[in-house]
Amino acid sequence: MAVYVVVRLWIREGRELEFEAYERKAARMMARHGGGIEQAIRLMAVGLSESDEPFEVHVLKFPSQMSFQAFQEDAERHALASDRADVVTRTEVFVGVQGPVYDSTTDGLAGDAGPAAHV
Known about the structure:
4 strands
């Protein structure tokens, strides 16, 4: 079962290029474990201080919990931890599985077969 990871990332002001370089390295590491960054969303923190909202939110996808765990334990990832810490000031991670598909063209859920199973 595929695992989705939502990551909220705060970075040091003026370090966008270094952040992007690190994330390209991280994406290559994820690919080695069958995963990847499905979506990177750069937020527009309108009216909020930089500390209130993250710089980016990433949606990652891995084919299984085991592949996600392998990425987390990757030796290269650990070797780059200090580079990441120089740029990223705060990280929040949420791990889950795909939920129901909400179909806007019908009154119910696409393929809705009753109450959803809890994971």
